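FIELD: query
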Amino acid sequence: MGRQDWARYLGVSAAVLIPVYWHRRIEAGDLASHVYNAWLTQLIRQGQAPGLWISRQWNNVLFDLLLSWLGSAFGLRAAEKAAVSFAVLTFFWGAFALISAMTRRTPWNLSPLIAVFAYGWTFEMGFMNYYISLGLCFLALAISWPLGNAGPVISLALIPLIWLAHPLGVICFVALSAYVTLTRAVRPRYHGYLLLAAGIFLIGVRMSLARHYELKWNGWARYFFFNGADQLALYSSRYYVLYVLFAVLFIVALGRDANSRRRKGGWWDACGTPLQLYLATGMSSLFLPTLVRFPLYPKPLSYLTPRLSSVSGILVCWMLATMKPRKWHVIAYVFIAAVFFTFLYIDTGILNSMEEQVERLVKALPAGHRVVSDIGSGEGSRVESEHIVDRACIGRCFSYDNYEPSSGMFRVRATPGNSIVEAEYPNASASQSSEELAKALNPPVFLVSRCDASAANICMRELSANEIHDLIEDDNK
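FIELD: result
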């Protein structure tokens, strides 16, 4: 790799990271909760968080471990930027490497579109451990085949790291690599049977899950919505213009490419594998539940179907990379990316302004007070903003209704009766009465909310004892 190649990679990396640094705070759903719990981890180790403890676990923790390590060395503000930069570059270059390895082309023309998916719904929801696991999954798949016999060995060596990030990344790696291996072992005329077998297998998984666990299914929208383009639908209805534009781009490009290759042949050899994987992922969104409640965890594993669409989006990019590059392709990619990131800059800027208001409000409180929030997402938004209080509380207050300790899925855990955070996930059990919880959460407790249901202005007030009791009863219903 020459100096010019290094300059290109560094330049693209810098461009991809612009949304991480364009505001003072990174607005990405659960990310604020991850940073807040990294601070709680510091308090626990310093003996300043009675009732909280750190659990040893080996999955769903890679991002949190990285954040805590960087936070101890450089402070949480710098650690957040660095850890998220690592996550974004892992996802972007993992997807880039996968497409490059499978098409034997360097897909520079697709960089704007891959960057859009790097900041799609999965990122904006702040599912950082799952997000990193996907990037590592793509990287492991990219290594598997081009390096001969050494490729699978190196890929398998990455599995523990993928698992440390999130188990779903390992499932994606196993499923995708198995299907690609089968397509290479079976003649193309029989590939339809592979797709049929995948559908039957998914129906079997559906029946097995329904027999053993409590599930929740998506509504009728699952039949067409979760197709990869939904990663572009974020904070308001205007993003659906991008959803439609991307869907039209893909269908037109796919149709024209298939038609142009009809006489020459070779279309299926180039596009068949990613198309089958795309259809199989679509069937997963159709047959599998969006929520599974496992007995081991108080909080259910949720948003399974929307998470899968990140994979669908990269598979679409893979298919686009198999086509002969055309000027109108690049123009369309750049246009979609430009509009997407313009919308994203505006909307995350509004959230930054809201969080700044929260910071000013909680800064006036004496240290150690409890704060709860009922700030929901804006109208038409698919991105949760309920954790906007968490990061603002770092060093100032405790976000009592932070969900991580009570979920049982993260490192920080809480014992019943502590006054820092909920110890039990709402609706999980009735081991503590409302009276006992209200006693633990004794005044003063402050509520942060929108001043007006349709406004971005934030207000704060102290809750009365009766309101605290009502708040707990609402959680336990």
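FIELD: remark
The CA atoms of residues 281 and 384 lie 24 Å apart.
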